[in-house]
Each structure stands twice: as C-alpha cells, then as structure tokens.
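Weekly structure sync, notes
Attendees: PL (lead), two postdocs, one rotation student
Agenda item 3: pending single-chain targets
PL asked that the sequence for the first pending target be pasted directly into the notes so everyone works from the same version. It is reproduced below exactly as submitted, 257 residues in total.
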Amino acid sequence: MHFGLAGKTALVCASTSGLGRATARALAEEGVTVVVTGRSGDRAKEVADSLPGAVGVGCDLVADGGAQQLLTAAREAVGDLDILVLNGPGPAPGTALTTDAAGIGQAVATLVTPQNALVQAVLPAMLDKGWGRILSISSTSVEAPMPNLSLSNLGRAALAGYLKTLATEVAARGVTVNSLLPGRIATPRARQIDEAAAENTGRSLHDVEAASKATIPAGRYGEPDEFGAVAAFLCSTQAAYITGTALRCDGGLVPTL
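Predicted structure, written out during the meeting:
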C-alpha cells in the first residue's frame, strides 16, 4: 500500500533512536522529507544520513526556547511542515504519594508545554493547506496508568486530553490529531528498563525479559519497525477519517477494550 505521502515534510521529535527513529524511517521510506531531531546535532545528522532525503537537527526541546529553535531550524531545512510527530522521554519515576508542585511543573514542562508550542506553530500552515497530520508517540499509561510513574502518567494524560480536544476543533479542516500508545517494544530504552529491573531484583536479564513477555498476549516484545509502520499509516492519506484516537500498539498487553 502506498500511503500517498511522497513530497510531504515531517518533523519527528526525539528521532535519533527507538520509536522516534523507527517512525522517521517509515515516513522517509514513503517519500517524506523528514527532519530528524535529538539533543546531539551530530547524532541527528548521522541518523538522517542513513535515511532517504532526511535532514538532521540538534535541539533540546525542553530547554527554554527549545520548541521555537527546533521549528526555526526545521523550516529552514524543509519549509512548512505537513506532519508533526511528538515524542520524547518522560519525567523521573515516583509515587503519587510523593508528587508535589515542583514535580507537576516538571511533568507539564516536559510533556505538555513544548508540545503545545510545536502544535500551535505548525497548525496555521496545515489549516491553510487543508491537510496536516499531528501524531503523539505516547504510552499505554494513558489508558492504564503505570505504578511508580505518577508524573509521567499525569503529563501524558494531560497531553492526550489536549490533543483529543484539538482533534475535534480541526477535523473538518483536513488535519488529523492522534496518539499512538506503545506497549513493550524492543528498543534500547526497553532493554535499559529490563537491565535495571534485573539489577534491582537480583534476577537475570533473561528471567526479567521472560516474565515481561509472559504478560503480553503476543508472547514477545514488538519490533520498532512494526510500530513505525503503524505511525506512518496514521499519517497517511488513507487515514484521513481517523482522528481524536488513542491507538494501542502493544501486542494485547492492556486488558481493556
């Protein structure tokens, strides 16, 4: 299936590794000119050089003025953006009992404020053209909050609520807004989490991974390319009637409809 994206432009945040990189690769293979981003400009350029027609831009999105800096560089490289993919790490772990005002501020500053700035900046051109795709790479915690990730649960749910509201406001003007919720995908980050769990519990990495996979009906971790393909579809012309949705890509992990 051809997704009808050849000649489009995209900014994929935090796309030098993991799910962001898989999404950037899937879009580039569909003929999209992708702006690859990460804190390291050298790393962003290295990843971009491995993709057809991509460009790399270094930027810390959560730094003061980071969103505007990133947008300026992206527009200088590719012009107006047709596709915006929001992505990035969450706040530090912690319980709800220990959550305080400073932590809440951190969650909003990491997972809501810069994303809102990017969305508000790219929307005018999308609405003028009558075509645009905004996609958030989020987490299944939006639907099933995870233990000891109180701030991440808070921030990601807030962003999802904002995007759902936005989707209803722009749907009639050719712009779709969706969230894609990964479960356990075989990324470097997933391995780091498993390694930390092994160290903290005294179990082997193999046993930790086996226990994790046993909770997934598919019986395995997802592959990054599988996730990237779903992300690219949600940005496609064929997905024009899908908006305001939070779609899970989790191998059946979340036990709800």
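Discussion points:
- The chain has two domains: 9-185+223-249, 186-221.
- Strands lie at 9-12, 33-38, 55-58, 83-86, 132-137, 175-182, 246-249.
Action: rotation student to compare against the earlier draft before next sync.
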